Amino acid sequence: MAPALLLRSFDDGGVALEPGRRFTLATFLAFVRDHELSHRGQDAARWVWDDTASFYPKLLAADVRVQRCHDLRLCHAILRNSALTGASLLASTDRGFWDAAPEQQPTARHRGTALFDLEAEQAPESDSEPEFRRQLAAVNSSAEPRRIRLLLAAESAGALIAAEMRFAGLPWNTAAHEQLLTRELGARVPSGVRPERLEQLAATIRVLLDDRTLNPDSQQDLLKALQNAGLPITSTQQWHLKEVEHPVIAPLLQYRKLSRLLSANGWSWLDAWIVDGRFHAEYLPGGVVTGRWAARGGGALQLPKQVRAAVIADPGWTFVVADAAQLEPRILAALSGDLAMAQAGHETDLYAGIVASGVVETRAHAKVAMLGAMYGATTGESGRLLPRLARAYPRALGLTEAAARTGERGDVVTTRLGRSSPRPPDAWLAAQAQAYAASASHVDERRARSQARDWGRFTRNFVVQGSAAEWALCWMAEIRTQLWKLEGSASVAGRGPGLFAAAPHLVFFLHDEVIVHTPLALAEQVAALVARAATAAGKLLFGDFPVDFPLTVATVENYADAK
DNA sequence: TGTCGCAGCGCG
DNA sequence: AAAGCGCGCTGCGACA
């Protein structure tokens, strides 16, 4: 049965311009294709639909791309929480269909909706058109409509990009990966069996710990065996192990490393995730509270450096790998309007700039101190360096401190474009209330204070991490737009059928880093547009504030060769 | 047999 | 040198 779709046009205020037209999926696809081809670069529609992740893949499979969309599900989540739209009807309405996590939503909605699904009677809660109006009303009544509007556009663009990257896939050379596995682990063995190299290391460990039955995969066994051997150890974490001297440490760490390689990115991972030389990772835009993306399946955002050598461009193609240098401190400088910190990063490595300003002695110190400021370190080297940073950059450090205090009170903080932190959970509020009760014990007070500080560290980091995520979305959206233009202006040598087979396209995103897979001939232009996009993203978020967003850009055929 | 919390470790 | 944010995945081991 072909899904029945209703498409209506609206003006910017959400007023319907016409009664609407009915489509089958096939006729809708043809309509969208025609529209996008005839409106390249200007006056293109912003397609409003329930859920990009469930609908856009149908378009991509039919070789149809769209320039812009409005993802009702993702935008609802932002508007529901944002302090900038807290007074809206949307925010005060009971939680419902649009608040459900995607996997919990009824399957009926996955039938596909364009603007509005005529099968709505099968999913009565899915009221796309009224929801769209509620969202527009929330934006228009906001204290900062420009920021919220940009955030919704960026989030929606991210959803398009996530679907496109999954569709295109990251080039993955299975042979190179297998070669790497065989070199490190030995020949392939059935799952459940230790490969040769791991078995050798296990035997060595057993001898050195004088325990013939030891299973090195069991933390409990291992900890006991290490203690029996006289090692003063309470945990088997890497850094903890590295602190003690014993002949077993080296082979044990090697065992851990290889065991991890086998279980996380071994042969079964290859079998499960690599299809026709591509890793089709499923990205989840908005999957992290701060607005960062998450990923599901295959560990797309945790690809170990160890296996990146298997990410190899197609013949005649190459990768442009770009990452934003010291993104979060630069975001902090701009957020807080700290000219001195922004200046420290002007045309140079920001940490080097901090050293050059005489604030600390080494780059490593500058980095650990900055991380401490953004994460809320109190002890160790980072804690010791913080006062010097605070004297040099009072505005930046003032912002992180204020964000921490806000969280400690149980209040909400908000990113540059308007994503707000969640309220603390009920158990947290109860613990704070308990600490003020007449019956409160010292234990109650200590626990409440500790939890308050925990939440303060979360909100402290939220504003920076969340605003950096917004910058990254704007960066990537601009890259996508410019790649599309480049494709239109350049004659590109094709390599088989498919939407992205002939043109440069995004294939990977990792918080502050992107990879574009491009024909060799266009690599230089791609590298240039990626850098321009970083500057454009900075302007979108921070206007004329003088902060740089420099990139490290590498054009490489193998991801392992980047930086 | 399946579920779940935890430890450990990969990424930013 | 190793504590301070955000994630996902795996294997172990406890429990039903």
UniProtKB/TrEMBL annotation:
Species of origin: Cryobacterium frigoriphilum
Any single biological process term in GO: DNA-templated DNA replication
Residues in DNA-directed DNA polymerase family A palm domain copies: 304-522
Matches recorded under SMART domains: POLAc (SM00482)
Gene3D superfamilies with a match to the protein in the record: 3.30.70.370, 5' to 3' exonuclease, C-terminal subdomain, Taq DNA Polymerase, Chain T, domain 4
Any one Gene Ontology molecular-function term assigned to this protein's record: DNA-directed DNA polymerase activity
Top EC class for this record: transferase
Entry keyword annotation includes Hydrolase: yes
Keyword DNA-binding on entry: no
UniProt xrefs under InterPro entries: DNA-dir_DNA_pol_A_palm_dom, DNA/RNA_pol_sf, DNA_polymerase_A
Pfam families: DNA_pol_A
Annotated protein name in UniProt: DNA-directed DNA polymerase
Recorded catalytic activity of this chain's protein: DNA(n) + a 2'-deoxyribonucleoside 5'-triphosphate = DNA(n+1) + diphosphate
Keyword tags: DNA replication, Exonuclease, Hydrolase, Nuclease
NCBIfam families in UniProt: PRK14975.1-1 (NF011538)
Signal peptide location: none
CDD domains associated with the record: DNA_pol_A (cd06444)
EC numbers: 2.7.7.7
